Amino acid sequence: IMCASAKYNTRGPALIPRMKTKHRIYYITLFSIVLLGLIATGMFQFWPHSIESTSDWTVEKRSVPADSPIPERGDLSCRMHTCFDVYRCGFNPKNKIKVYIYSLKKYVDEYGMSVSNTISREYNELLTAISDSEFYTDDVNRACLFVPSIDVLNQNALRIKETAQALAQLSRWDRGTNHLLFNMLPGGPPDYNTALDVPRDRALLAGGGFSTWTYRQGYDVSIPVYSPLSGEVDLPERGPGPRRYFILSSQMALHPEYRSELEALQAENGESVLILDKCTNLSDGIPAVSKRCHKNLVFDYPQVLQESTFCVVLRGARLGQAVLSDVLQAGCVPVIIADSYILPFSEVLDWKRASVVIPEEKMPEMYSILQSIPQRQIEEMQRQARWFWEAYFRSMKAIALATLQIINDRIYPYAAISYEEWNDPPAVKWSSVSNPLFLPLIPPQSQGFTAIVLTYDRVESLFRVITEVSKVPSLSKLLVVWNNQNKNPPEDSLWPKIRVPLKVVRTAENKLSNRFFPYDEIETEAVLAIDDDIIMLTSDELQFGYEVWREFPDRLVGYPGRLHLWDHEMNKWKYESEWTNEVSMVLTGAAFYHKYFNYLYTYKMPGDIKNWVDAHMNCEDIAMNFLVANVTGKSVIKVTPRKKFKCPECTAIDGLSLDQTHMVERSECINKFASVFGTMPLKVVEHRADPVLYKDDFPEKLKSFPNIGSL
């Protein structure tokens, strides 16, 4: 046994190590395979849906025979209701269109030559942005919109006929219905058409150089020409304010006529104007695109744009220019001189807030035109320009998503993004609540408005107001708020006989806030607040004011305009009643508003403002302006040119505005209310709504509102 045991023991140790090594290699190999499988699965599961430029063997080749069908050139009459099939979009509870991207293919002609170049980096970024967005679907049957993987961003790189034939081969082409093409550099020498020359039939075009002749309004989308410098140069945001140069031009290869006019402008205005051009004496290795020169001076580009208040954007061979994006990034206000150019995303962006558009024939007057703009407005435009770039220009992703959102808003207009959401920077959006009335549609004209007249004891003037207001076609009811507890209103038989119900409400106390109480008798959405001495407004003026309110039912729409100003010497706000073009308030002695604001004024007015108004018998109109502006974040609308309103005969001692302390208290009101609200919600605007043709030499009987009144 001992010999056997010894024999076993001498063999055992030799076998055990060999068994362990064999199993170790096996398990390591098995574990490695499993681990690699898990990694690969995770990469495919969580990797973004990038559309990469891949080598030929991974992309399906598709032949385009010379006799393949070619789409029609492009129907200029196309609109969403004629060439777009909205029924493909179907019902979507999220109100989002679904976008399908065709798989990447390589199209070659019958000789094996490529129809187009490899997909560009910019188009790859655009497709990736779409595929990563909430618009994307990989189910072609659910798609509302189709985007080809054929890159037509730059027409210079295309074979026009063959590219059109490749588009026609797409499985869901159907004459281009519901297909979207992106193009930034249209046309080619010598004429440089302002829209893509590739025949595309009914396809929508997101184009970077549309003119008024080629843009199909409400169908195509005007997009920016992307600037590659946006992703390469980081320009830190610079605060608004005066800068070293007043006007700067940085474009190279300008038409000689334009350059000579700019140089004449520089010669006339000296160092405040800087005209740059291409550098001709750069050292080897310095990219010309990042430098600009003036005589022997070299400037870094686009950094130099931040040194100017205004930057000129002139048309080149193409209307759309990448320099517009560079200018916006620099926070420089673009001066756009390109007749007939459709500005990027102009369907939703208010370019008046961020740019100055000057006709080409007005170039010699550019300096004087820009000098007439107030500094405060310039600073707002500088902020807006930078924000437009950050929101809509800075990347191909931003451009793609803005384009899809515009199309989405057309398909689902009831869920469309508002003007404020498109145009207000985030700081402005956060400072106020959006429209609390939820009125996406215009209130019906048939409902009319309720006129509320606040009165004390000026009976003769009151009766004249009632008589005039009763002539307004849309008047539904007239409510008189009798604010005199020591005197009874006139007998029923003495009141004017009018065609609408007239109701007299007697108040328990003499308070100015009684005019804004939510009386049960108010059955219309629209309310006209009017004083008992406003006798000069004509029925045409009042009817027009009501029509304007119907289009802006969440705003105060009124006649007497007023302004608040900052007094730098006193370091506080000041009330201004002088006749100026700027307004930030309309007096509720004659103003339309939604009855909802009566509820807010009575029950939701911040702090002690309501009691303060009643105690001082002043400023209830300013308080209402503060309230509406704070809730909606919107400005008032002044209607008609009239500036003088008070009744010349109404000089009784009880006229509140005749008190010597009245104007002083009005300024104190503004400061008091701003303190309670914790902000200054009033918005200053230079805007007035007038009827069309009111000043034109046109037969009065053919005008809708002939009797608008004088200044």
Automatic annotation (TrEMBL):
Residue span, Exostosin GT47 domain: 94-373
Annotated transmembrane regions: 25-47
Listed EC numbers: 2.4.1.224
Catalytic activity: 3-O-{[(1->4)-beta-D-GlcA-(1->4)-alpha-D-GlcNAc](n)-(1->4)-beta-D-GlcA-(1->3)-beta-D-Gal-(1->3)-beta-D-Gal-(1->4)-beta-D-Xyl}-L-seryl-[protein] + UDP-N-acetyl-alpha-D-glucosamine = 3-O-{alpha-D-GlcNAc-[(1->4)-beta-D-GlcA-(1->4)-alpha-D-GlcNAc](n)-(1->4)-beta-D-GlcA-(1->3)-beta-D-Gal-(1->3)-beta-D-Gal-(1->4)-beta-D-Xyl}-L-seryl-[protein] + UDP + H(+)
Gene3D superfamilies: Spore Coat Polysaccharide Biosynthesis Protein SpsA, Chain A (3.90.550.10)
Location in the cell: Endoplasmic reticulum membrane; Golgi apparatus, cis-Golgi network membrane
Cofactors that this protein relies on: Mn(2+)
Pathway the protein acts in: Protein modification; protein glycosylation
Keywords, ordered alphabetically: Disulfide bond, Endoplasmic reticulum, Glycoprotein, Glycosyltransferase, Golgi apparatus, Manganese, Membrane, Metal-binding, Signal-anchor, Transferase, Transmembrane, Transmembrane helix
InterPro entries noted in UniProt: Exostosin (IPR004263), Exostosin_GT47 (IPR040911), GT64_dom (IPR015338), Nucleotide-diphossugar_trans (IPR029044)
Domain spans labelled Glycosyl transferase: 449-694
Listed GO CC annotations: endoplasmic reticulum membrane; Golgi apparatus
Similarity field: Belongs to the glycosyltransferase 47 family.
Protein's UniProt name: Exostosin-2
Organism: Phaethon lepturus (White-tailed tropicbird)
